[in-house]
Amino acid sequence: MKFRLLLITALLRAPAALWGAADLPTLWAERTKSVVAVEYMTETETERRPTISMGTVIDTDGTIIIPSGAIDPRAAMWQLKDFRVYLPGDAVSTPAEYLGQDAFTGWHFVRAAVKTRAQLTPVTVFATTGAPAVPALAEFVWGIGLRNKDEDFAPYIMQSHVALIQSLPQRTAIAQHEVAGPGLPVFNRDGALIGIAATSFGQSYLQFSRRSRGEPMLLINVEESSAFMLAEEILPNLGRIPKHISGRPLAWLGAYGLEPMDRDVAKFLKLEAQSGAVVSEVLDGSPAEKAGLKDRDIILALDGKPLPPLKPERVVVTWLEREIDRRAPGDTFALTVLRGGARVELKAVLGEEPKLLREADRKYYDRLGFTAREFVYGDAIERRVKAAEPSGVVAHFVKPSSPAAIAGLRQEDWIKEIDGAEAKSFALVTAKLAEIETDQARAEFVLLVSRGGETAVLRIKLK
Amino acid sequence: MKRGFNQLLESVVKIDVREVAFEAGTKRFAGGIGSGVILSDDGLVLTNAHVASPRAVEINVTLANLERVSAKLVGWDHWTDLALLRLDLAEVKRRGLKFSHADLGESGKLYPGQEVFAVGTPHGLTRTVTRGIISNNNRYFEDTRGVNGYETGTFNTWLQTDAAINPGNSGGPLVTNDGKVIGISSRTYLGANNLGFAIPSSTAQRVVAGLLREGGGITRSYIGIVPKELQDLENFYSLALNTGMLINSVEPGSPAAKAGLRSGDILLTLNGAKIDGRFPEQLPPIQNLIANQPVGASLQLTVKRGTETRDYVVVTEKLESRVGEEWALEKWGLSVRKVSRAYARENQLDDASGVVVIGVHPGFPAAAAGVSRGDIITKINDQLVLSLDVIRAAHADYDAKPAPTLVEVQRNRRVSLYLLKP
Questions:
Q1: Most buried of the four, A117, B106, B366, B419, by CB within 10 Å?
Q2: Distance from C-alpha of A378 to C-alpha of A356, rounded to nearest angstrom
Q3: CB–CB of B417 and A454 under 8 A?
Q4: Is B81 assigned a catalytic role?
Q5: Does domain B221-318 have CATH number 2.30.42.10?
Q6: pLDDT digits (tens, 9 = 90+) for A104-153
Q7: Extents of the domains making up chain A
Q8: Closest to B332 (Cα-Cα) out of B367, B380, B356, B375
Q9: What pTM, to 2 d.p., does this model score?
Q10: What is the rounded CA–CA span in Å between residue B12 and residue B299?
């Protein structure tokens, strides 16, 4: 009974999609209830920075997805504060909760407050029943854009025609003109959901001015996009709401620097039209290492199926990375690789991704003028050291003109010693720095830092 | 003006150099102009390393009497930015040419404010004399890419003068009013007002002797420490003033690293001699002291670490430039430079194998395949590129019988495969 009731509501709420021929303004007005603007603050050591992005409502719980680029991956999760949701054309905002990022789709999930939910319509209501609608080439499509905050995020309509459909590796339609704000839905003539706009592509222009005579430049429209991911990439993944704000569990293979194999090389290696990816480096202690993957192996197949022939060739790397992200720690990942002319079968068991930058502990010392950040796995990779023997902390932020900055400390410097004592762990370092920070009698202290493989002794004067 | 000054004017020359350049994926020739000074009756000419280098294929010297005569490179030393040429004496004799020579003076006796003259060929204007004073007689100035990409200034300090030094003055003498050469004009801050720098004659004397003795270049020793002045850190390290030098960095894999030296150590003595590196100007002489030790010698270093002081024995290696040998593989449109140990250390590479791509020729196989500047070619047709000869041989094979050639390339830490196609 309950099922039937739900169905009826759905029918009532999406009449235009089913009876067709409704005029575009009516369709548009109904569908603007599926879009919102999301604003949040990034609280850093010395400032609060607002960011605004556009989002689409995906369910009756007020869940909203915003594009992956909307949040800086370097920011710690607890630095992201005060999420708020604005309805289109409304100056009033209501608080929202940040739920985390899904690694596979890249979406960040946000949930609107209970009282706001009644004013939202999930975009799924406008999806066709059964298989997701796929637009035809040259088909008329339209979508929603939102003006800026000073115009109360007023919604407006954009329309275009489908110019091309590509696998990048997600099925992506490229329209002739901008068709929606990034993160906002795109519909067909009948008002059925056919996709969600992705970040726009860069477009090449020649710039003429008094000084330059036609210099090439790249322009990216950050407010409107002509590319959108098809509904078939969206609808099956709406359930991937993170269970934890960290987005964990996160699957990890540990094959670093995958590089596409080009067609000429494939032919030379007698692989004909086969797609492949070269493994630059197998990381220490990773599932890939345990499975016996070696540096410079060429991955040819996953679970017995050849890698898809995608264009541009670079896309095959994204495809492979998504195949890892789609899975969970503990899942098997069976690879066929080419090593020294022979095919080798490997079975990796994916592990849990080591602590990420955004999860790293950090502590800011205002008097000293810098933030100490825990040294994580990614830092070891970047600095080309064995991940098993990390010590020290990273200067995550250096306040301009502070004692640390004057002494020459720079962001991303790796602090290895404090006052001649080895910086063994984050806990030891923070204890030591807190002691220095509070000791008003202290005139100076000395850091040994490493930068690009070279070290330097820095004397930080406090008086 | 004294008589000596006129004799000096007769010994200053203009130098035209045609040299080979590999950067564009092909072998090209480039021309340059500099100055020089004749030092002896047998035709030795002193100039800058950035004027005449082993890349020179043709060197022409214009004497003070405007006669031109060809010359050959005797040797060069980019570390001190000096090069030594010899005039073609057979040609001089055959044509009955006359020239004079200048004498080196004592740069150690110069004082700030002393009047000096720069003589040379700024912008090709021969026999230009400019006047100024010694602005500073002990200037510290080190540049890891100062001489056409080669290191310079590690082992010497400089004379600073406000005598106008312009491009083309390079290699010309800086002299006192009696015509004695007390420096070799070398560099200037373009856009600044008369901030010129010259290599002191004391350094030149040493280098000339070394180049004559060894021919080609000067062998120096290397132990792999990067020094820093101790200024203001004496308290922290509990040192008496004017004692010791800070070891700011120890290069991984270097003799110093192997001996157990660490960054933050204080070097107190070297083979028993007290070290004082309190100010930056004091560092080049200390570096020079190390460089002058024989290659393979065991040095005894007394080092203070924390409260403990102990001796370390460091066995020196031969000093190498970060710039390796270069070559153009013209059929591929590819210019390469051997990865040196110093380059490998600087870029945190696992070892010094491979060649760095320094240029590609658009439209040629390397560029078409996707190879770009800065890439490191580590393998060619499954063979490790351990030397320049490996890739030269592969190129010769390709030249004889063009066939698709597979190269493995590292870019940052990423490995890609490319196919060079005929």
A1: B366
A2: 7
A3: no
A4: yes
A5: yes
A6: 999 999 999 999 999 999 999 999 988 898 999 999 999 999 999 999 99
A7: 1-245, 251-352, 360-461
A8: B367
A9: 0.88
A10: 42
